[in-house]
Known about the structure:
By secondary structure, the protein is an all-alpha fold. The model is unreliable at 1-56 (pLDDT under 50). Helix 1 (2-20) crosses helix 5, helix 3 (75-85) crosses helix 5 (117-133) and helix 4 (96-108) packs across helix 5. 54% of the residues lie in helices and 2% in strands. The protein contains 8 helices and 2 strands, in the order H-E-E-H-H-H-H-H-H-H. The N and C termini lie far apart (42 Å). It has a two-stranded antiparallel ribbon with strand order 1-2.
Amino acid sequence: MKDLTRWALMALASAALVFSGCDGDDDETTDDTTETDTASDDTGEADTGGEDTTAAGAGCSEADQTIVATADPSPTAVAGSCGVGCISVLNPADLTPFTTCTAECMADDAGVGSLSSTCIDCYAGSATCTAANCVADCAVDPSSDDCATCQVASGCIDSFYACSGLPQE
């Protein structure tokens, strides 16, 4: 039980780190350990439920990109706060409740809640990837080189940008 508590505390700190480095600035990309569930129509293209997903990666639309660029606090900051708030449901054996909690928290936020669900899912997936893979490196200092290295090595950063379609600067 002490190990699970210790793991949860480290994951909480790492979730804050993951999102401090994924707001579209010159950070590297993030890995999403969850898959976004999208249906496919008979053309073979993903059905996004009518949402505008014109961005290259399809997760975040042009409208989402405007919100990402102007929201205060940023979606990255909100995702970090939500990840921290969802730490109580973090379970290494089943990360789905953590991802769902983080996404729902973001959707309820007044500043970034108007992001499309597919874009929110990219942010929630990034938090989940970091919590699942980089707890030991990120718990003590989320802005450390070790944490950033882990996020890159684990594919969290690449996966975030691939999911979101947001530009890496």
